Amino acid sequence: MSRAANRATIAALMTRARNEILRVPGAAIPGVLAPTIFFLGLNGVFGNLIQLRGFNADNYLSFIVPVSMLQGAGFTGAATGVNLARDIEGGWFDRLMASPAPRWVLLAGMALSASARALIPAALVLVVALALGASFPGVLGLLVAALLVMGMAATAAFWGMMLALRYRSQSAAPLMQAGMFLLVLLTPAYAPIALLQGWLHAIATVNPVTKVLDAMRQGFLGGVTWSDTWPGLVAIAALMFVLGAAALRGMNRFSARA
Amino acid sequence: MPAIEVEGMERSFGELHAVAGVDLEVADGEIYGFLGPNGAGKTTMVRMLTTLLLPTAGRATVAGHDVVAEAAEVRRSIGVALQEAALDPLMTGRELIRLQATLHGIPKAEGERRADALLERVDLAGAADRRVGNYSGGMQRRLDLAAALVHGPSVLFLDEPTTGLDPVSRKTIWEEVEKLNGEGTTVFLTTQYLEEADQLADRVGIIDNGRIVAEDTPAALKAQVGRPHLELSIAGEAGEGVNAVFERFGKPLPSRDGKVLVELEHGAAQVAPVVVALEEAGITVESLELVEPTLDDVFVARTGYHLEAEEQEAESAEAHS
Amino acid sequence: MRANLRVIRALGVRSVRQTFRRPQLMAPIIVFPTLLLAVQTGGAAAALDLPGFPPVDSFLQFMLAGAMMQSVLLAGNSGGIALAVDIEMGFTDRLFAAPISRYAIVLGRLMGTAALGAFAGLWFLLIGVIFGAPIEDGVPGALLALVLVVLTSMAMGGIGASIALRTGSASVVQGLFPFVFVILFLSSAFFPQELMVEPAKTIATVNPLSFIAEGVRRPIIGGESAGDVAAALAAIAGIGLIALWLARGALRHRLRTGG
Asked: Is-contact B301 B225, C-beta < 8 A?
């Protein structure tokens, strides 16, 4: 298929995903509100941790805003996987697979729609956080955050789609959501890495999302530097590559089984 | 070059052999009907030919391309309307056809033009901007069919296109399929309705348990199991005179339910002559019925059981009249 | 009366069997809170160093009650969903048309929720023992915590059931879950309420779920328990009464409008 045709297909898939939110009143609300609610709850419960020595932040709100933004991205991406599972169950997916559109184009369309959608809950968390006194991350910090949120959403979408293609059923939804939920929380989410308990400290040290979180936190805790940014970019790119490849493989092998 | 060529196609799911070795050929411009009961392997076969499922053995070409090695080319040439009308209830009919056009790389303006034309053709122009979720079953099938045509495919696959539809909708789909075929599109359709295969198909392949048990034109298949017979109610007693007349036109059959039966050597054309001959012999005919062998008779002959339940036969009889 | 008890038992057995027969539905109720427990314990363990933190052996010991409360909420929610599915399928119509008490029908459904609550309670008590959070009050303490958990799951299940009866829709019941979760956050389930940040702190002070969490926590972390347990029981009773009142309204509405 030509480049123009591929672009048009990706745009059409993104439009369809957008319609799902716009045309079903209230469908998007849980996904958009949940990260903000979790953010408020988290702050209300653990806010006083900031008093501990070792916290290099003076504001717990600023510390956890990126966590909630990433969670929103994870949730949005997982929802893309759930939607694909529903489309597979309902037969819609057959239409896409029987068409000459290349598989990677189908994947890209769905992942990009997740990336775009994830900006909405992220923006809401940010606005609420700023209203409550979190520090403004600066334009550069904002840009880095937006980029990483979109990358995280695409990662989560690939994960969700991979599971959808494997299990072909919406009952895999909890696995899609739990996987991303864990990925974001097995990091210095609640507290700086030095204050984490042994086993969590070990996991957070090797978890690529830790790098993503650190890069996102920069603007909120201080200034943005390249040396603190590039590890996050590399980490999210690696995650996208690995899970994207797995999802593509799943799509190519989809017709081998019923 | 045949539109579809299948050689030794097999598909197993663990222990289940859904398609257990099928060979067939569909000529360009033909309507081929794949007839069989539920679970016979029809849908599995269609899914393999439309590149949605890989065969476990054998090979097939559609529009000159191998379904496994050249799947992308196959997809460019085929139109597909599957059993589960693959529709999105939140989209409008027009949006669906335009999406299908995009999937086939048709530029926006051209896609819009074709959508308008197709919606007009399947009589959905009025409902084009309503959401598919509000369409009736018949409307959804028509939309599915229209979408399958947006890129002008040379081969059209229809998996049970009228299952679950009322007789009127069924007729509409049949007419559309015939028109398409008239324009040169090869049609491969699966069905569990004898009627549908009989009416539409140039050739019918009867499939049971993953294998083809009979394949020919509907007429030839039916001729294999017998000829039409005439059932007559006559005034008064049936005597020697009746048989004498009958023997001139075919074979007298045992009477049933107070009627006299004769198998006609040369079919329906002999109905009038038989009646005339009886009148000349002084025998009055009160009512008559011409009974043709059906594809179900063919099916029973090959497999030992009926294709359709009696209930469905009555339904088809209704649609036929 | 005897007939009603038999009905409760029969429906109860059915709902318990339903719950445990589909582990993939049960798993999120146990697995999710366990994961959250692990992450929160690992992540916020340093909280013990905060001045004013109650005397505990480990953060896990403190958090166990929170995890159990989460399971209880999820169990109540899933009981509500199960009832809503029954209603959608028409199964409850069959029951309502029979000469048995409607409350017996709901109570039967809640037996499944209670069983789930018991299972969750046992699970976390076991986790505590394995991962170094012993139950200070020993076996009697564990039993006490378990009883409180089971009663709470039934009370929460009652609320879920009322919503199911009122709306007849499983997706509505499911959609309400996040809000209940928020209410749990605004309690002392996960953190000592004195150390919480305003306005969450004030809300936690009056939140009935806080009283229940404290009641469940007491036998685990040890110390004078009578007052906390009494408060917990009162809170459970309160929620139960609200659930009863809601259920009554919902049942009457259902009978009057047939749907």
From this structure: yes
Closest-CA residue of chain B to A16: B91
For domain B227-291, give the fold: Alpha-Beta Plaits (3.30.70)
Say if CB A35 and CB A189 are below 8 A apart.
no
Instruction: Name the pLDDT band for C75 (thresholds 50, 70, 90).
Output: confident
Check: CB of residue B268 under 8 Å from CB of residue B228: yes
Provide the 3-class DSSP secondary structure of residue B65: strand
What is the least distance, in Å, from the CA of B99 to any CA of chain A? 7
Length of chain A: 258
What is the sign, positive or negative, of the torsion defined by CA atoms of B320, B188, B217, B206?
negative
| A99 with B78: Cβ contact below 8 A | no
B162 touches A at CB < 8 Å: no
The domain ranges of chain B are 4-223, 227-291
pLDDT at B210 over 90: yes
Sorted by where each begins, the domain ranges of chain C are 2-40+55-257
DSSP assigned state of A187? S
Instruction: Look at the block and give the residue holding tokens 């048989």.
Output: B243
Alpha-carbon span B214 to B296, nearest angstrom: 12
**Are C65 and C127 in contact, with CB atoms under 8 Å apart?**
no
Outline where A102-197 has alpha helix (H).
Answer: 103-132, 138-167, 173-185
pLDDT digits (tens, 9 = 90+) for B70-106: 999 999 999 999 987 789 999 999 999 999 999 999 9
Structure-token pair, residue C21: 């027969």
Please give the structure tokens belonging to residue B204.
């019918």
pLDDT tier for residue C24 given thresholds of 50, 70 and 90: low
pLDDT digits (tens, 9 = 90+) for A121-165: 999 999 999 999 999 999 999 999 999 999 999 999 999 999 999
Bridge pairing between strands B250-256 and B259-264:
antiparallel
Any A CB within 8 A of B254 CB? no
Token pair for C57: 């052996």
Alpha-carbon distance A58 to nearest alpha carbon in chain C (angstroms) = 14
**Strand B57-62 to B4-13 pairing:** antiparallel
Q: Which of A9, A18, A99 is best to mutate for the B interface (most B CBs within 10 A)?
A: A99
Torsion angles phi and psi, residue C165, rounded to 5: -65, -40
Q: Which residues contact A224 (CB under 8 A, 6 or more apart)?
A: A137, A138, A140, A141, A144, A218
Q: Which helix (H) or strand (E) holds B233?
A: strand B229-234
pLDDT confidence tier of residue B311, bands split at 50, 70 and 90: very low
Residues A71 and A185: their CA atoms lie apart, in Å, by 8
Task: Give me the residue label for tokens 């926590």.
Answer: C217
User: What ipTM is given for this predicted complex?
Assistant: 0.87
Nearest CB to A12; choose among B76, B90, B102: B102
Which residue from A42, A60, A196 is facing C42, i.e. has the nearest CB?
A196
Count of other CB atoms within 10 angstroms of residue B240: 7
Choose the CATH number for B4-223 among 1.10.340.30, 3.90.1570.10, 3.40.50.300, 3.40.190.10. 3.40.50.300
Please answer whether residues A196 and C42 qualify as being in contact, where contact means their C-beta atoms are separated by less than 8 angstroms. Answer: yes
Backbone angles phi, psi at A189, to 5 degrees: -75, -50
Per DSSP, what are the bridge partners of residue B60? B6
pLDDT at residue B310 in the model: 43
Q: How many CB atoms lie within 10 A of CB C54?
A: 13
Measured between its terminal Cα atoms, the distance across chain B in Å is 38
C-alpha Rg value of chain C to the nearest Å: 19
Q: Which of residues 32-91 of A touch B (CB under 8 A)?
A: 90-91
| Amino acid found at C209 | L
- Amino acid C257: pLDDT: 77
Q: In this complex, do A99 and B75 lie within 8 Å of one another by their Cβ atoms? A: yes
